[in-house]
Amino acid sequence: MKSERSSVQVAGTFAESGLIAAIASWCECLQGRQPLLAALKHLAEGLDARAICLSRHSREAGGSVRSVIYNLPSSVRPSVEVTRSYADCVLGRYVDRPRPASVWFSSFTEGNDDPSLEVFQERARIAETVIVALALEEKWADYLEIHLPVAPGGGAQGLFNTLADTLSRTWIRRSPGLFSDAMLASRAQGHSPLREPILSTANPARLSRAEFRVCVLLSRGLSTSSVCSELSISPSTLKAHLRSIFAKTETSSMTELLYLLLAPWKGEDRLAGPAARRA
Question: Which ranges carry the HTH luxR-type domain (predicted)?
Answer without folding.
Answer: 200-265
